[in-house]
Amino acid sequence: MRLLSNAAALLGKEVRTEFRSRELLSTTIVFVLIVVVLFSFTFDPTSTESHRFGPGLLWLAFLFAASLMLQPCFLREQVNDTLSALRLAVVDPFAIFLAKIGANTLFLLLTELLMLPVFAALFNVTFRGQLPGILLTFFLGSLGISTAGTALAAISAQARMRELLLPLLLLPLLTPILVAATEVTVGLMSPDPVMQWKGIGFLAVFDVVFLTALWLFGEYLLEE
Amino acid sequence: MDLPSERKIGLRFTKIEKRYGAVYALKNVDLTIAPGDCVALTGRNGSGKTTLLRIASKLTRPTRGELSFSGMAENGNPQAGFVAHTTMVYDELSAEENLLFFAKILGVVNRAQRVEQLLREVGLAERKDSLVRTFSRGMRQRVAIARALLANPSLLLFDEPATGLDPEATAWFIERLRKLRDSGCTILMSLHGESEVARLATRAVRLEAGSVVADTCAGATFQSIFLFAGG
Amino acid sequence: MMKRVVLSAAAVLLVIAAAYASFFVAPEERTMGALQRIFYLHVSCAWAGLTAFSICFLCNLLYVWKRKEKYDWLGVSCAEVGTVFTTIVLISGPIWAKPAWGIYWTWDARLTSTFVLWLLYIAYLLLRTLIEEPDRRALLSALFGIFAFIDVPIVFGAIRWWRTQHPAPVIMGGPNSGLAPGMRGTFFFAVLAMHVFMWFLIAERYALEKMRGDVELLRQEAEVS
After folding, report:
1. Would you say residue B228 has pLDDT above 80?
2. A72-79 helix and A131-156 helix, angle to the nearest 10 degrees
3. Contact C217/B20, CB-based, under 8 Å?
4. What is the rounded distance in angstroms from the CA atom of residue B69 to the CA atom of residue A95?
5. How much helix, strand and coil, in percent to the nearest 5, is found in chain C?
6. What backbone phi and psi angles, to 5 degrees, belong to B42?
7. Which residues of chain C are within 8 Å of residue B62 when distances are taken between CB atoms?
8. Probe site for chain C from A152, A170, A175, A206 (most C CB atoms < 10 A)
9. What confidence tens digit (pLDDT) does each residue in A22-37 have?
10. A93, A181, B56, B226: which could form a disulfide with A141 (CB 3.0–4.6 Å)?
11. Domain ranges in chain B?
């Protein structure tokens, strides 16, 4: 199907470009590290409490990082108007979004997985044996953040004050992700780990709803 | 390599209007371009040439009016080859990578061969592995032209295509354009004043403040259309 | 013109009547006494706010589809009015909570969700100030409005689930839970009055926006010629 092959080709290019310079990944990882460290100063994690509020801080750090990391998404395409070239070449503009969502989800996921051991060390939490659950949560959460974030990045790229605008639009919208992902992660990192499927359900619903909305309205986001 | 008549594309602009707030980039433009025509668009800066081209490429939606195609593109996407003011290529990729990428998306058969052939034609075969970031304006323009020609489009849209090209590259471009025109491609190009490129046109249209003010189809001469084409 | 005068008069009179009813007609609540009366304002504003935002959503969809300016004007009017009503909800909640629970804010499921809703529409209004060209502004804010609105049920659901994990005081229970018959009448009258008032505010705001649009068009035309 042309849509999927277009998206795959675009995704390939995005990933290849990023791994060549690694500038987005490296800055994002360092940013999350800084935020998590600062949080650990402010919240003095003793073992009994930290598994309860730690995950919330972790997801907050991811959300802040994402709202910065997603900025270049469409700004890059404005430099030489390559967005027009893409729009001319692809059959369905949704392919452009799918590719960018895929790339952003991948980058976010990589950042999160790299941060996991650091977080666990600083906040004295364990996730022994809960890795599959955590991976699922991170994946669904990152997918949601990327989907909404990519859509809003397309909007903010066309407005003024875009660096401040994107977090302003994105963070309230991502409330369900923050709440649900935090709850599930708290459950997985507690001394008696428990899997909150309802939370996973909310993440999945968010992902499906926003992917569908983007499929329906994406072309208008890119319109001139 | 003549295009069979079914593959030729004609365009019809009907009462096209493009408005940005109260500013009219295009006002009530009626223009029919026959399949295989090579049309030179001229006019001052801000007369609407670029907007008309972007509407023809379906990048920009008109505020009012309709654009229809005849020929193979009647119900589909004409997939025009577009060379714009901006180069529309990625700085952080090499010339070859850029072309291979776009060729993949466009579904070009025998990508590698086609890209190699085009790079040779535009004279960038030696620099194919250099990042576009390192290229001069003229070299970028050549990559942009190569990109436009990748999928052998039947409709070509050029916005001041000879900008930045040195005399050698300009001569190559004119030859290429002649071949494309003779093979039946429909070409719509915006130009700044009379030039070698303009001489290839079979028709000329002058825009002023978003409206068509002169057309060789309506009796005007080529000279008169280009005479006042200042910057 | 006549219609607008009648609407304004009706709106104001109804609100005054509803206020009177809240204070003097509705029976006093058993446990909380006079304080509970703020409920009529709080909940009727909440419903009116949601109605306004729903109309805004419809306008957003219609604009993307039809591209007629009037949908943009109506959309922003509804968004602003909805935000005003939501602000009243967010202020009246704590006013009740302080005497009732001793704290101004509780992360009560509905109040929290309302706060997020409020933030989303503030973002919508801010977005509009950052795009100059009218057609772009209308389209992009309509698209954001659509994303914001479809997010709202998910926000409500997620926060309510979160609250079941961490129970907190609930502000004024459910709207119809345990509403005595005497109260019900006043309550629905208050809701009606607020909706008429909402309609009046939207109509006035729309007229203003329409005028602004026309003036802007004239100004730009004057600049060009």
Report:
1. no
2. 40
3. no
4. 25
5. 85, 0, 15
6. -135, 170
7. none
8. A175
9. 999 999 999 999 999 9
10. A181
11. 1-80+155-231, 90-152
Put simply, the chain A residues between 113 and 152 with a CB less than 8 A from any chain C CB are 148, 151-152
Q: In whole angstroms, what is the distance from residue C121 CA to residue C144 CA?
A: 10
Q: In 3-state terms, what secondary structure has residue C78? A: helix
Contact flag B21-C217 (C-beta cutoff 8 Å):
yes
Class of domain B1-80+155-231: alpha beta
Q: How far apart are CA B153 and CA A186, in angstroms?
A: 56
Q: Is B76 on the interface with A (CB under 8 A)?
A: no
Nearest CA distance, C207 vs chain B (angstrom):
19
What are the tokens at C74? Answer: 């109506």
C-alpha span between C146 and A63 (Å, rounded): 22
B154–chain A Cβ distance below 8 A for any pair: no
C107 Cα to chain A: minimum distance (Å)? 13
- Look at residue C49 and tell me whether its pLDDT is greater than 70: yes
Nearest CA of chain A to the CA of B224: how many Å? Answer: 34
Cβ proximity of B67 and B30 under 8 Å:
no
For residues C162 and A187, the answer to whether their CB atoms sit within 8 Å is no
Residue A98 to residue A12: CA distance in whole angstroms: 12
> Is the Cβ–Cβ distance between C47 and C28 less than 8 Å?
no
Q: Which two tokens stand for residue A111?
A: 């950042």
pTM for this predicted structure: 0.92
> What is the pLDDT at residue B13?
93
pLDDT category, A217, cuts 50, 70, 90? Answer: very high
H or E element, residue B215: strand B211-215
Give CA C223 to chain center in angstroms. Answer: 38
Residue C139: CB atoms within 10 A of its CB come to 22
Chain A residues closer than 8 Å to C114 by CB: none
Q: Which of A80, A90, A224 sits opposite B89 (nearest CB)?
A: A80
> Is the minimum CB–CB distance between A32 and chain C shorter than 8 Å?
no
Assembly ipTM: 0.93
